[in-house]
Amino acid sequence: MAERRNILVIMADELAREGVGCYGGPALTPAIDRLAARGARFTNAYTPSPICVPARTSFMTGLPVHAHRLWSSAEPWAGDPPGWGHALREAGYETASIGKLHHRGLPGNDHGFTREIEPLHVVDGVGWEKALLRRQHHTAYDPAGLACEVRPAAQDGADDPYSAYDRRVCAASEAWLAANGGRRASDAPWALFVSYLRPHYPLTCPPDYLALYDPERLPPIRFAGEAVEYRHPVVNGLRRYFAYDDHFDAAGRAQARAAYFGLCSFVDALIGRTLKALEAAGALDETLVILCSDHGEMNGHHGFWTKQVMYEESVGIPLIAAGPDLPASATVETPASLTDVAPAIRFAAGLPPSGALFGARPLQDLAAAPADRERPIISEYHDGGAVAGAIMLRAGRWKLVAYPGFPQQLFDLEADPHERCDLGLSAAHAETRARLLALLAERADDPDRIDARAFADQAARIEALGGVEAIINRRGFDHTPAPTGATGATGATG
After folding, report:
1. Gyration radius of the chain over CA positions
2. How far is CA 492 from CA 253, 346, 435, 489, in A?
3. CA 251 to CA 383: how far, in whole Å?
4. What is the DSSP code string of 184-216?
5. What's the pLDDT at 185?
């Protein structure tokens, strides 16, 4: 068991692997790259769900989506089941969050933090209600917005509330670490969660960061507009529902990608300032630092933008851990998940592992052990546009995606790392699919049962919100609005 450590967790929103330089992407991210050189970089890390709310619940609790059963963007976490913040606070840690949480956030909700500084939660404590209407005919929003918003931000940033919010989060992290970071963990340990909005769209990029990227010199989009990619009925349904790509031309796609990578560099600079504040406080050597994202970004590949699907660009994430009990400049090939963060934090705090973590393991253990490329990893999507749940299993070279009531998808990531060739209907791979499906049922549950529970829970949620028509008639939005001014701090109420 490790000694008690201070803990700093930094999360960026929608940061894909290709948005980080040390993962081989075109983005310029020197701060994240330096952190990777100090610690362990997990090359096969995944989100438990390629959508914010359930992914962040899994991140906090260490539970997969089918275990915590907060399936969608309209089923936010209110602090039950408890998360790692609760465990640390009970163990005597000062716990604080700065930035986006995306939980319920109503009075009386306790997310495990003594203080929530500049918190951003789901809208009205409810979230994006239309996520629940997965089989009902309705219009979610105008998908043209993503393309329309691709532009440089005003020089003073007045039209860029997301970046303005992140600047406030960064300044608050610097102030908190200056005031508290110097406390030794042996005396008064602390845990700080700093959560940035960027590079999440809207793709309004600060001009100085947009200028770093020539749209014509970026790597090309893979499989853009190839109709063969949309032959799976559930994936095709998602493509129609989130029809962002229909509103781009070739030049617009290139500009959008330049803006996305510019925002990756923007948030990297803020992360660098947070890490410098930790170093200035003299706490670098006894602090576990974890850098992660809640999910990836398709960035035009396969004709998709944002997330929602089980392609690597959407479900794969950067994950880096540095500090005590972790090797420097290490590349960890063992597959990992955001659900492994909670046990890593417990390990750093000297707490025993939780018995309810469904196979999750501390990142420290994964980094120290020989590579286990066969370690199974699960991700799920039960949100807007999905007429059936998508339940993914990554095991070794194979990725299986089960869609109850529809054919499975199967990809050989060794031979086909960019997932062009779907083997879900290949007779030659029937035995492989059956073996992986049995492993999925063993490690999680039968996908049909998972899907049935999700739809049943969501039917009850729809009724609690007033029914289908009430949800359709309420206002919609494409992304959670950022606060436009300082929101201060709130204390835990649970």
Report:
1. 21
2. 43, 20, 46, 10
3. 31
4. -TTTS-EEEEEEEEEESSS-EE-HHHHTT--GG
5. 77
pLDDT along the chain (494 residues), means of 10: 85 98 98 98 98 98 97 98 97 97 96 97 95 86 87 89 97 97 87 98 96 97 69 91 94 97 98 98 95 98 96 98 96 98 96 80 96 97 97 98 97 97 96 98 96 98 97 84 69 37
Run of H or E including 380 = strand 377-381
The per-residue pLDDT for 25 is 96
Dist CA 76 CA 230 (whole Å): 30
- Whether 35 and 275 have beta carbons less than 8 Å apart is answered as yes
What are the strands, taking DSSP E only, across 200-329? 204-205, 287-293, 316-317, 319-322
Residues with Cβ within 8 Å of residue 434, at least 6 apart in sequence? none
Owner of token pair 């492993």: 439
Q: Is the peptide bond before 202 cis (omega within 30 degrees of 0)?
A: yes
Tokens of 199: 């590079």
Cβ neighbours, 10 Å, residue 464 = 9
